[in-house]
Amino acid sequence: MSNSEKHNGANGVNRRAVLAGGAALTASLFTPKLLRAQDFPTAAVNTTGLAVTDDTVTVGILHSVTGTMAISETGSVQAEKLAIEQINAQGGVLGRKIEYIQEDGGSDWPTFAEKAKKLLVSDKVASVMGCWTSASRKAVLPVFEQYNGMLYYPTFYEGLEESPNVIYTGQEATQQIIAGIDWVTQTKGAKSFYLLGSDYIWPRTSNKIARKHIEKLGLKVVGEDYYPLGHTQFNSVINKMKLKKPDVIYAIVVGGSNVAFYKQLKAAGIDMTKEKPLLLTISVTEDEILGIGGENIEGAYACMKYFQSLTNENNMAFVKAFKEMWGDDIVIGDVTQAAYLGPWLWKAAVEKAGSFDVDKIREASPGIELTTAPEGYVKVHENHHLWSKTRVGHAKRDGQYEVVFETADLVEPDPFPDGYQ
Amino acid sequence: MTTAPSNRLFTKSEAIGFVILAVIVFAILPLALDTFRLNLFGKYLTYAFVAVGLVLCWGAGGILSLGQGVFFGLGGYCMAMYLKLEASTPENTSIQSTPGIPDFMDWNQLTALPWWWEPFHSFSFTLFAVIAVPVVFSFIIGVAMFRRRVGGVYFAIITQAVAAILTILIIGQQGFTGGVNGITDLRTLKGWDIRTDSAKEILYFVNGIMLFACLLTAQFIRKSKLGRLLIAMRDQEDRVRFSGYDVANFKIFVFCIGAAFAAIGGAMFTLQVGFMSPSFVGIVPSIEMVIFCAVGGRLSILGAVYGALLVNWAKTTFSESFPELWLLGLGALFIAVVMAFPDGLAGVYTDKIAPRIRKLLKRGPPALPAANAQETAAE
Amino acid sequence: MFSDYSMGELGAIFAMQGFAGLILFSVFVLMALGLAIIFGQMGVINMAHGEFMILGAYVTYLTSNVFADFLPALFSIYFFVAMILAFIASGLLGMFVEWAMIRHLYKRPLDTLLATWGLSLILQQVYRSVFGAREVGVTIPDWIMGSLPMTDMIEIPINGIFVMVLAVSISIALYILMYKSGWGRQVRAINQNRIMADAVGINTAWTDRMTFGIGCGVAGVAGSAFTMIGSTGPTAGQLYIVDTFLVVVFGGAGSLLGTIASAFSISQAQSILEFFLSGSMAKVLTLLTVVGILMLRPQGLFALKLRK
Amino acid sequence: MTIHNPNFVLMVEDLTVSFDGFKAVNDLSFYVEPNECRVIIGPNGAGKTTVLDLICGRTKATSGSVNFKGQELLKMREDQIVHAGVGRKFQTPSVYEDLTVFENLELSYPQGHGVFGALFFQRDDPVKTRIQEIAETIFLEDHLSEKAAYLSHGQKQWLEIGMLLIQDPELLMLDEPVAGMSVAERKKTAELLNRIINDRSVIVIEHDMGFVADIATRVTVLHQGKTLSEGSMERVQNDPKVIEVYLGH
Question: In CATH, which superfamily holds the domain spanning D10-248?
Fold first, then answer.
């Protein structure tokens, strides 16, 4: 793959498949009103010197293709490219084809900042889809604020942030956590919890919110443990869990540690299908199950906003198009879907504002609705996060989740939750 | 020739080398590059501090530390703590439950600034700490190891473990350190906005001046009797010991100097890049810093600067165009430097290029004095 | 923290925890044995040790796929075939690396460190290009992933027993190889005096290559075994390198017994601390203790006192 | 503990060192007088080099005492022992090959031995004169600006002796100073040693009996870490125990 060059959207992929997918989506979901470029003169829609011509508009894709985070970020890159393909197939944004410049963050935070700056300053991209870890987002944030760029950030994360220059397309912690804990206490009658996490900010913050909520419900947290990223030995903590006999193991383990944890849990005789204890996680998407092995995590519950197995029409078309573009073996996790929303949300904001200017997009963004999202209907909140439903999936042996619960209404994003800090 | 060999600070060719580097750093790069690229080169130059320290420790003294990232990080963190406190005024942080403390502390339910953060309100204390903290730390490690005659491979592995420990600690104590995200969103230095283009340019020059100060210090050490003792220790440690020197003291000293250089680099890194995170403390960056030094030539302080510039520039360029090939290239570079060019760029220069230049110069006036030939080989 | 539990429960947990410590011990032994040979006997610092382990893991992954596709009837025992293949693959790669690289660097131990670090980067990228950046899921036969219920509380994981048995058998095999066979005598002779060994007719070049190959092969077997408990990805090997080196150095280079003793003490310390503290702090305390002891006793636990 | 006796420069008493149970030096005692040249001889493995290692602090003794002019050397660091006035030459020539002869001698000049002393050490005239003087003594005055790596084996041995001389030690210990030298070099070395041992005490380990006879005041024969015989060259040569050890088996 060669980066840092302009890509016309359809390069290197099966154009027909994409068009078919895009068309299927278009046809089945809504009838787009075709916007023609000549109705929107470049000088009018681009007053800040962004990379917009009469026929094209350039955006940036900024993820890790190399390094340890490449494992996770690949799916996001694929989703963003798919969305761009489909938008172009429908006629682009304000009649202009989207071109993208892809940069590699190399799993290294200063590199992210460096490349973000390059995208904004040298390439003058109209928006950036990118970042995965909180650390990379924190590193680029000052750059986006200084040069007034717009970042579409796909990962579920710890919250505690609300930047005018970021649209958070994944869930923040309270959206993901509170609904899940309510569900497990109401349907499963859980009374005691054991919190486990990898040792960094997202698991720690999430567990903090979880603990407050559990205690608010009058229930008990019987243990809380953190292991360094990349840790591979979990027998001691599994023993502690056996001693404390929690009803729920609430696990936020990430990366390679995940694989070790679930394999060792299974080997220690904790059969998750028996739900004694029940395992609830917010960090294992279908992507992670590939590495863990479906047979090792069968019976666990995951709480997030999207599962590949969702059966609504939007999602069926999305999964079909995704597989046509990237191959049949691929799985789609929560973050991948959230990344897919980025270009669509940006398109909607541009069209609502009638301009590519970042300030106008920012103004236009709150209130934007997307009825075509694979996860269903979403809406941008004033705090730049998405209103979205939260769902609970039950892991099956084949590596997919069966959706067993879904919140009745959209959950309001609350990045600075009162009483949870 | 029965007179004593040259004892001047510079031989002629060394002086020329310093001048050329100064021209590159202070004239060519700033003129040729836009602010963005210049800032990148400024970042690369902060690694050169570490590489120069490694030339003293490893090339001259034979002490290979795989934990230089620790000192780079400590220096950088000290600076970042000061900048973060300045950025965390009660007005800026009014949305927090406890305004006036850094944001990550607030997220971690800290309600007051930890006592050991307090002194970092003072800029002069911070400047002191940038050097003192890493030096004290390296002194402790140095005393413990060199007094017990731990050297070579063992020293390398233990410093590596120290880097691992510090990384886990920083990440684990996120309420106090910012955890894996590091200390981010640094804005001003005594009210001066360090994010603007003009600030970046000024910082680049400050960085260059600091680097030359370190280079001159390193050159002075190399040319002093202490410098010759380091080489002597590397080759015949026992002989030095039985000539009445307390070998450990010299190793501790040079290790502390290396740590101080790395720390200055770290502080300049924080200023120019605008944040500090544990990813510069661990094993991988520490080993990469060794390769900067090896590529430049482990015996040449000027080579170390070129090594840091070249490897990092290549990293940026190649990872932009061929992200998949970059790791292969970096790996191959490690192997090539060790197997084919153990003296790095500086070695290639003295063996292959310098003789030709001299030949050329000899043909036409003014000829370089032949006496310098051997001295050139030493640098 | 224990007042709420009955004696029976506590007894069971301590038994389990002891067992967890033993598993960790076996994991450390498996990680460190290959390195102990290469570092201890040859003085080579192989920073690519983790990547040799991961090669074994990938071989296991491929073998499991082949068995699943072509020999489903024999799937339950594919693991043994995989371990042998892992040994061969990592061993051959090791011998190649020794021939191409290491043999030129015997006099410069610190340089082997840099060169093998370069090698590890290259191997990581090769794994990424061949197997993809994502972790691969190795399907383990069900019988290995089960557990033996001893009482209500005590359940012994079979993969733990498997790792332990493997660690013990490889240790014994290596012990016999190094200390009871003519070949082992040659290796040790070279370690003590290369020139002399050469002079008395030992084929030092071949012995070196075999030693390095066996060390890497053992790493491959370890990697194969770790598919049962850990992840298999391009960069997974990096997770092991610091622990492995500390185990070997702490034990005293050149001493297999020392390596085993050090694996035992570090694993027990870590396992016990993990039970009482959070995992991160347990790890920091363990590493600090090891580094502290190494500063006081740099030659490690079991170094011979030699006349220099 | 040994009480210092002003008649002796060095008093070695009950010195023992054991390596994992093997006693390389076993309960050894001997005494060296001022201006004496003591030669230690003995078969391979007798513990000769180990004795020197123990005196100069390179090996730590298991028990016993080494008293040098009233100071207990066993409790001192190597560099402190050197400063007390003990110089040691190793068996294989150990000079700094990457440095010039001048620099080799300069590093041994007894000044600027602390870290900062070395950092701000000035190469002034007394230093240069002294180096010139020593270089002449060790036949290397024409090689001062050459790298030590380019010297012949014998010249390296001389250089190392010169590096000791410049410190002007009261007790000089030489481990096989003529090993590997040509006949001509041997003669020159004997001459050199005869010149420099006059105003100090010397302990020499040597195999070459002709050379020993040339320089020795007294001879100590070591066998299995113990003194087998001691006295003048003539007495030792006629001692039946010595003959048995050297020729008996």
Answer: P-loop containing nucleotide triphosphate hydrolases (3.40.50.300)
